[in-house]
Every structure is written in C-alpha cells, then in structure tokens.
C-alpha cells in the first residue's frame, strides 16, 4: 500500500447481491451513499460489511476523529513475545459498529514506527475508559512499543473469571456466544499481521475483537455488581499497567507473586 493520499472502499458483494435478490431498489439505495468513499482522498481503506464498517488507517488515526470517552482496544502482533515480536495492528471501536484499524509499520519498512501522536494521545488519556480482553498482554505491548503509560483499563477476561466461576471458558469467542448470542470467527487468529496488505478476512477478524466489547462489558459489569465483586475487579484493573511492566522486565516466569 503506497503511503499517498488515496482511498479504496470495498463494499461487501455478498451483502449487496443478497439484498439485490430481494429488492433491487433497496440494494441500490444502500450502495449509492457509499460511492463517495471510492473517490475521496484520504489514507483510509474502508470495508463495508453487513452490520459494521471497518476503517484501515496507515500509521495513525486521523487528527479530527472523535471516538468518544469509552473505547474498545485490541492488538495484533507477529507473536506473543514482547521482546521479539513487533506490534502490527491496533483495533479501536467506540461501540457504534465502526472499527478503526491502525497499521504500525517500522521505519525500516518505509513506515513511521511509533510516530503516531494522535493514537498515543488517545491511548494515554486517563479520562478515556479502555475496554480490552486479556488486557495484560495488550497493555504491555502498547506501553512498550509506543512508549506510553496507560490507565483506566477494564478487562473483560478478568471480569469473566471473577463472576463465571462455574466454567473455565473465558475466551472472547465463548463470552460473545454465552452472553451476547454472537458467534465470532477465530480463523485468522494465527495470521501474518506484518503483511503490508491485510486481507478482507484479516480485517474482519481484527474488527470482531473490538466491536462487541462494549456490549460484553455491560453484561459483565452487571454480573460483577450482582456478585458484589465490582470493587475487586476495579482493583485488579488498576494494577494491570504495573503487571504488564513486570511481565516485560521478566518477572512473569517465575511469577513474582509465586512462592
């Protein structure tokens, strides 16, 4: 993808054809408003899907983007080793059906690396609530790769473990199915996220990791209140940046809290 101002909009052909079969006029009316995306000049790839819109940004978020006070965040990396594997993609959603994906490209590959001031300003804003699933990893990679300090984080995995003590299924796929009735795919979980061009399947997978976190947190917060464990959860969340820092310094194996 050249680093020039351009825009490519990809409308879901499957969705268009399914609507066209039932009502050609409705299909056209739904498609035409998005035509401007094909000719606009901005460094964004926009992919329209059945119930969500995915925006892929190169290097940073647009300076004019107002994403709200509560955001869902996830990351994609080359692997799970903070010292070896680089940060490739950051997914953000305001819970409005839009997912903003930011590609982080190293300078040696023609990118800007950690030079993403708009993104860093958002992630380090203490007034912004940040929803994550397994925040321990994401907070760690974001703090280390971007050189920021994060706070006001809430982790749906920790929340689930505190209240769903009747099961050991605390993965995002399980929680979305059990609490929201939503099935999400994990087929692209092991994927080359460092590729210069992401496939539509990769983009859809990455977006699904943030599009449901607001609804999921609302359900889990209610359960935390019901079980009188919200204060305990908040204490766990507040410790996450320090826990991530300990992991990066090598205090995870053996765990500093173990005997």
Automatic annotation (TrEMBL):
Enzymatic class: hydrolase
Residue ranges of every copy of the 3'-5' exonuclease domain listed in the record: 43-225
Alphabetized UniProt keyword annotations: Hydrolase
GO molecular function list: 3'-5' exonuclease activity; nucleic acid binding; ribonuclease III activity
EC number: 3.1.26.3
Pfam families for the chain: DNA_pol_A_exo1
Xref: InterPro entries: 3'-5'_exonuclease_dom, RNase_D-like, RNaseH-like_sf, RNaseH_sf
CDD domains with a match to the protein in the record: RNaseD_exo
One GO BP: nucleobase-containing compound metabolic process
SMART domains assigned to the protein according to its UniProt record, in alphabetical order: 35EXOc (SM00474)
PANTHER family in alphabetical order: RIBONUCLEASE D (PTHR47649:SF1)
Name recorded for this polypeptide: Ribonuclease D
Organism: Granulibacter bethesdensis (strain ATCC BAA-1260 / CGDNIH1)
Taxonomic path: Bacteria, Pseudomonadati, Pseudomonadota, Alphaproteobacteria, Acetobacterales
């Amino acid at each position: 993808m050249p680093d020039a101002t351009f825009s490519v909009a990809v409308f879901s052909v499957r969705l268009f054809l399914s609507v066209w079969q039932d009502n050609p006029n409705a299909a056209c009316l739904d498609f035409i408003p998005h035509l401007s995306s094909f000719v606009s000049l901005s460094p964004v790839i926009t992919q329209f899907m059945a119930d969500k819109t995915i925006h892929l940004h190169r290097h940073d978020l647009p300076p004019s983007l107002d994403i709200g006070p509560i955001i869902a965040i996830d990351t994609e990396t080359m692997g799970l080793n903070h010292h070896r594997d680089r940060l490739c993609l950051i997914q953000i959603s305001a819970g409005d059906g839009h997912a903003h994906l930011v590609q982080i490209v190293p300078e040696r590959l023609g990118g800007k690396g950690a030079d993403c001031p708009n993104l860093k300003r958002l992630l380090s804003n203490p007034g912004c609530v940040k929803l994550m699933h397994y925040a321990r990893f994401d907070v760690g990679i974001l703090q280390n790769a971007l050189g920021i300090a994060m706070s006001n984080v809430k982790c749906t995995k920790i929340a689930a473990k505190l209240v769903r003590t009747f099961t050991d299924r605390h993965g995002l796929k399980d929680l979305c199915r059990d609490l929201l009735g939503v099935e999400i795919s994990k087929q692209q979980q092991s994927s080359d996220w460092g590729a210069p061009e992401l496939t539509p399947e990769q983009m859809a997978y990455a977006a699904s990791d943030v599009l449901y976190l607001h609804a999921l947190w609302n359900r889990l917060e209610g359960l935390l209140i019901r079980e009188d464990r919200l204060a305990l959860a908040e204490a766990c969340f507040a410790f996450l940046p320090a826990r991530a820092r300990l992991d990066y310094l090598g205090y995870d194996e053996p765990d500093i809290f173990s005997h």
